[in-house]
Amino acid sequence: MTDLAHKQNSLLDRLESYSSCAVAFSGGVDSAVVAKAAFLALGQRALAVTGTSASLAEGELTVAREVASFIGIRHEVIATGELGDEQYTRNAPDRCYHCKTELYSHMVPLLGQLGVAVVVNGANADDAGDYRPGMTAAAEHAVRSPLLECGLTKADVRELATAWELPVADKPASPCLSSRIAYGQEVTPERLQRVDRAEQFLRARGLPELRVRYHADDLARIEVPAAAIPQLCAAGVREEILSHFQTLGFRYVTIDLAGFQSGSLNRLLDLEMPSATS
Description:
Helix content: 40-55%
Distance between the termini: 44 Å
CATH architecture of the largest domain: 3-Layer(aba) Sandwich
Number of domains: 2
């Protein structure tokens, strides 16, 4: 048996042991692999649940619906209200805790109504090595993490997604829009929309992997892979980006010379909020 086959069987066995489950489903590759495995292991006893709010980037709900349909799993969409929670909008480093608490607080009461026994998420083994306050919320709501429990890394997840021919196998990670706003800067619908429109503008110009980070004084910090930085600085392109971003409401527009780094705002924790990781 190959290593991939062993990991696949381990994941299927773990999900089958739950009897039934609801997958916290964003439509990204991690939750898609969990949803596919849940459907293979449990059939109609598996359900995918997607939470929607202003922090969901444009097009992501459509992707989630398409992926759920491709898999064949039952799919429910629920509205979440994290933007009504001051603990979330003040955007301290534990923001993700309040976001996941809101999502799981909606999902767990629905278990009986939806006919499932447990909520599962898409956290993988690599997530254990990063600052992930959302994992605390998961533990408090008895949410299971089958990828993590089976030791599957992000690379393993991508490999399984490719083997199962999932349409999001190569999809770049797309965390919620609030993750683009620097800690300590208030999360508002207007700022989320501004970031979303800025990223959509850049993606339309052939830059699939990127982040537009919002910092104090309406400053936009653009992250793209280092090899793509010259593309942003090309004659005419730089001026076009600057003009469009200013139209969106950004006062300053910068390009991060370090290149794209997922979770780069966590580097600011020790500098700006030294107590955040204590």
